[in-house]
Amino acid sequence: MRRLLPALLALPALLGLVACDAATTAPGATPATGCGPATAVVADTDVVPVGGDPGSSLPATVDSADGTKVTVTDASRILPVNLYGSIAEIVFSLGLGGRVIGRDTSTTFAAAAHLPVVTPAGHDLAAEAVLRLNPTVVLADTSIGPPEVLTQLRRAGIPVVLIDDEQSLAAIPRNIRAIAAALGVPAAGELLVSRVDAEIAEARRSAPADGTPLRIAFLYVRGTAGVYLIGGKGAGSDEMIRAIGATDAGTEIGLSRFRPLTSEGLINAAPDVILVMTEGLESVKGVDGLLALPGVGQTPAGQHRRIVDMDDGMLLSFGARTGRTIQALAEAVHRPCT
Q1: In order of start, what are the domains of the chain with their CATH numbers?
Q2: Are the C-beta atoms of residues 47 and 93 closer than 8 Å to each other?
Q3: Mean pLDDT throughout 113-126?
Q4: Pseudo-torsion of CA 254, 255, 257, 261, nearest 10°?
Q5: Where is the signal peptide (predicted)?
Q6: CA distances (Å), 93 to each of 101, 176, 192, 337, in order?
Q7: Cβ neighbourhood burial of 263 (10 Å; 0-12, 13-18, 19+)
Q8: Which of 88, 87, 72 is nearest to 182 (CA)?
Q9: How many C-beta atoms surround the C-beta of residue 162 within 10 A?
Q10: 19-61, pLDDT tens digit by residue?
Q11: Cα–Cα distance measured from residue 189 to residue 203, given in angstroms and rounded to the nearest whole number
């Protein structure tokens, strides 16, 4: 993934939880027993608009994240694309889903499922597929590309507004406001910011108020591609881990963004829980396959099979559904063991 995995050229809750708790193996704590794998499940993954289509007040001239000023005169045919699906998620949540004409492969929620995909080669835009849809505005970030396609779209007269691609909780309200401003719906943007902030605050209150925080390591694994990485500071996963009252094990041993997974590094990180994306877990043939990777079985998490997986389209999207994601993750990680 371009933004999350800079070392690689092409890479990029509420019900139905099965989980186990929190006795940690950190100093002074008691190792958890009887724990097993858990899946963090958000019961309703579809977007919920703040209201009906509010209508756009245009033209709007906005600052694109690449330093250019872009004027949007027509938002009747919107194409939101990025690596995480978060831009489309925000557009639909603003009440503008009826104007969206296409999607990226990461936009998987039900309201957008019928839309044509414009990223047939993983997360690369196909210029022909975009131009065929005749968008009046394209919303993207630097996680999507190649840059030449975005330049080609601008040369074709299509306003392309780039949104900041920072993966953090603090960036969510900024991105909502930027998208709302570009589409001429600032009031709807403020309504959505208020709702998302409240949902995240409520979800964070579910974190344990006392006790030694769990150490959680996020592993990005793609067994079919031979990709095995561990997250650290700035990876995005660290934000989600802190939001549920836990400690990011990768950050604690000095890692930043994503680094190749080594047995020594993972053993030193000593995670109580290992967090992975669902498709990643499937790519290594499940929990047993993950435990067979070097070092995994030697960690407290591996010894107790404390593996938590979560849907790829939810875990690191940092969009309008983030409060639900945090709640689901907290429930999966902190629910008592049996």
Answers
A1: 60-200 (3.40.50.1980), 211-334 (3.40.50.1980)
A2: yes
A3: 84
A4: -170
A5: 1-22
A6: 15, 10, 7, 36
A7: middle
A8: 72
A9: 22
A10: 333 333 333 333 444 478 888 888 777 899 999 999 999 999 9
A11: 21
Amino acid occupying residue 235: A
Residue type, 318: F
Q: Band of the pLDDT at 225, cuts 50, 70, 90?
A: confident
CA gap 256, 263 in Å, rounded = 17
Torsion of CA 96, 101, 107, 113, to 10 degrees: 100
pLDDT at 104 over 80: yes
Q: Which of 12-26, 130-144, 266-280, 297-311 has the lowest mean pLDDT?
A: 12-26
Fill in the amino acid letter for 24. Answer: T
pLDDT at 8: 40
CB of 276 closer than 8 Å to CB of 285: no
First to last CA, the chain: 37
Please report the pLDDT score of residue 121 as a whole number. Answer: 65
Burial 203-226 (b: 16+ CB within 10 A, else e): bbebbbeeebbbbbbbbbbbbeee
